[in-house]
Amino acid sequence: MPNSTLTRTPVETRILDLLLPYHRTTEPGPPDPAAHPEQLDQIRRFTEADEPVLFTLPGFPCKSPNPAKVLGHLPDEGERLSLGFLDRLCARIGEIYEPGARMLICSDGHIFGDLINVPDAHIDAYGDELRALIRRERLSHLDTFDLRHVHGELDYDTKRALVTDAYAPDLETLRAQTRTDEETARLYRGITRFLVEDTAGFTGTRSALQRECRARAYGVIARSRAWGDLIADCHPSSVRLSIHPQRPGAAKFGIRLLDAADAWATPWHTTVLRETGGTARLLHRADAERLGRLVLRDGRPSHYAAVA
């Protein structure tokens, strides 16, 4: 006999309940669906229409250019595990809601690749391998979307400019928000930190590097917002996810892909360390290297396995 409490609980609440254990937030608290009215409304639009729930997730841009963090410029165990997690999450939704769910991975590497010093060729290779990984692992609930799907056959510089001109906030607005909005300020500090860590070959002083990275951070945020707004235009009814921490009640739902001590850690800024019990942790490559041995998958560096 079905659980009467579950059958009385609205399906959008039950779907959100599946996401809440993985909420990525800087304001942890009891997992309460009522604290996320935006997501409940977004999910409800699909359930009332008896359609598959569509999640859009900007992320999976490219690997960090810092070799002390990552194993190379192609997806590895971190992406494999993260994509598998997202696919299983959609499958679990299908167990309680017959139309199921789909996840659109909106790779944002090309939109700001020039600002983070990653060449478009590396971003293309990363995206191609990401799609190949989805096929190999038979992750049937996942699809991908990137700048190659926008503005036809134009070159990347032109596409970046068109998307930025159409959607990005101006610099002064962004500067003002970093002074008055804690979420924006936290994002700005986090991206600045990544840029400082990932900038190789800088010949100036440390303070000059920080100034330069702070300027680039505004550009990364502006273009990321532009990308998010373009996705919202293309998929206006989707449930919007984020790989960045989001407070309860925000327009986007922050989602944690894998365990990490750093709330900002992602598979593309880190390397996986497999603990002796099988648990996967995200660490910088230099740290994982000290704790484990390198494991290859299909002849390529994949992750580290902890040495007992």
TrEMBL record:
Pfam families: DIT1_PvcA. This is Pyoverdine/dityrosine biosynthesis protein Dit1. It comes from Streptomyces netropsis (Streptoverticillium netropsis). The lineage of its organism: Bacteria, Bacillati, Actinomycetota, Actinomycetes, Kitasatosporales.
